[in-house]
Design brief:
47 residues, mainly alpha, 57% helix
Length: 47
């Protein structure tokens, strides 16, 4: 039983670290705005 408890504690700590990292990236990192231009080719042939 102690090994199961140890596994659950380690899994919970790792999940907390991942959750905290995702939260930090979502709230504290801002990407600079940039303009995106993409050319869309016209279909071949006529209407």
């Amino acid at each position: 039983m102690p090994s199961l408890f140890r596994f659950l504690v380690v899994a919970a700590v790792l999940a907390g670290l991942v959750w905290g990292g995702l939260y930090a990236l979502a709230n504290f990192v801002t990407a600079p705005p940039c303009e995106i231009t993409e050319t869309i080719p016209l279909p071949k042939g006529g209407p």
